[in-house]
Write a structure and sequence with these properties.
single chain, mainly alpha, three-stranded antiparallel β-sheet, 5 strands, about 5% strand, signal
């Protein structure tokens, strides 16, 4: 008797759930990112303030400022390509888009991808992902967002007349008989670009606090590379023990230990993309260090001419593999590993027909690691000032908000005056 009562109650509850709406479940479930692209009503053309249209091509490749090793333009490219502030802006957008998708708002994330003209940016694991020709400075993205008007995007969802169990199991999507019962409904979503700026800035500030800590970890790992390399060589000669790799790769373990201590001490929640940011920070710091060493060799004249030619050729032949575009984790250590592997296989380098010499590859590695120490120390000071860098952006936001409020008051007074004139 009791089981029959519970069965009837369960059946009544099920009917009540079914009658809540005539929409199918697909209308309520937020689609996965980039599966369903929002359709913009008015932003396909230039808006009233003359901003460029947000045209979007699904198959367009990401714009990447190449990590060129050409001595004629490496310096100018390096200013943007390896700028730590530009890197933090890129990671702020990627992390914010990840959070939007995680909280079931992929439409705003897709809108940001079109604004940045960077399809699949949320999945891009690399540096230099954004258009640094259009956005020349780290804050250019935010300034353009601040001055953009509100927009409306239309998202289509499927409405079905199915009822009962068909509400949750509507059969194959390719069934033509079921497709006849389905209709598309349009859902309007408002996008307010200026309101996105403080939210992305908050993410950028959090990333800045983490980067300051992570740069210390890179410094620790950087100091262990050559001692670990020499120890492995010594153990191989004395004890015949040969390990995989040229040195100990402990950077990620250092980060894992930091995360563990962070968790047990109940500190503020870390960003969801800290591990990938840490890996890319290693790549970017190594990239910047190599460019600085190349410039240092070139400026020193003939004393490092052999080292300059060797490192330039070695770097330029591997720049696409390790520094351009998306790639796997540990690319920075992979590059150092390959460079250390060339120590025993180094061949004479000829500058011309009369000058031939041996290159001290191990000395080049030491110079790069020493330069990397300077780079990380310098970046720590820069990143630590992130909150101060955002002061001007906050002023621009307040100014824009005040102007909009003032315009609304003027329009309201004008309408009130017209009404009084007609009375």
């Amino acid at each position: 008797m009791i089981s029959k009562v519970f069965r009837n109650l369960w059946f009544l509850g099920w009917l009540a759930l079914i009658n809540i709406s005539n929409y199918s479940c697909d209308a309520f479930l937020v689609p996965k990112p980039r599966r369903q692209q929002p359709i913009s009503k008015s932003n396909l053309k230039k808006n009233d303030q003359g901003h460029p249209s947000l045209s979007y091509e699904k198959n367009t490749n990401l714009f990447i400022l190449r990590a060129t090793a050409d001595e004629n333009d490496a310096f100018f490219h390096n200013l943007k390509r390896t700028c730590i502030k530009q890197f933090m802006s890129q990671r702020a957008f990627q992390t914010f888009m990840f959070l939007l998708t995680d909280f079931r708002d992929p439409h705003t994330s897709d809108w940001l991808e079109r604004f940045l003209n960077a399809p699949s940016l949320i999945d891009f694991h690399g540096t230099g992902a954004l258009n640094m020709t259009r956005f020349e400075k780290w804050d250019s993205y935010f300034m353009e967002l601040i001055h953009m008007p509100k927009e409306e995007i239309i998202v289509t969802a499927r409405k079905s007349h199915a009822s009962g169990r068909r509400l949750f199991n509507s059969g194959s999507k390719n069934n033509p008989f079921l497709q006849q019962q389905e209709h598309l409904v349009e859902i309007s979503i408002d996008i307010d670009p200026p309101s996105l700026v403080p939210r992305i800035m908050a993410v950028r500030e959090q990333i800045g606090r983490e980067v300051v800590s992570d740069l210390d970890l890179i410094l620790i790992h950087n100091e262990q590379i050559l001692p670990s390399y020499h120890k492995r060589l010594k153990d191989e000669v004395e004890y015949g023990t040969k390990k995989e790799g040229k040195f100990d790769r402990e950077a990620m373990q250092l980060l894992a230990n930091t995360i563990y201590v962070h968790d047990i001490e109940n500190q503020p929640i870390m960003s969801h993309t800290r591990k990938s940011t840490f890996d890319l920070l290693q790549v970017l710091s190594l990239h910047e260090s190599i460019h600085r060493v190349l410039r240092k060799y070139k400026e020193s004249g003939g004393s490092h001419e052999l080292e300059y030619k060797y490192l330039r050729d070695f770097f330029s032949s591997r720049v696409r593999k390790y520094f351009d575009g998306p790639g796997p984790y540990d690319r920075a250590d992979d590059f150092i590993e390959e460079l250390l592997g060339a120590v025993a296989d180094s061949k004479p380098v000829s500058l011309n027909q009369s000058i031939v010499g041996e290159v001290r590859v191990l000395q080049i590695v030491g110079d790069i690691l020493n330069m990397r120490k300077e780079v990380c120390t310098e970046w720590k000071y820069i990143v630590d000032k992130t909150n101060y860098d955002h002061v001007d952006l906050r002023k621009s936001l307040l100014t824009k908000s005040w102007q909009e409020t003032n315009d609304e008051n003027i329009l309201e007074d004008r309408n009130q005056a017209e009404l009084e004139a007609w009375q």
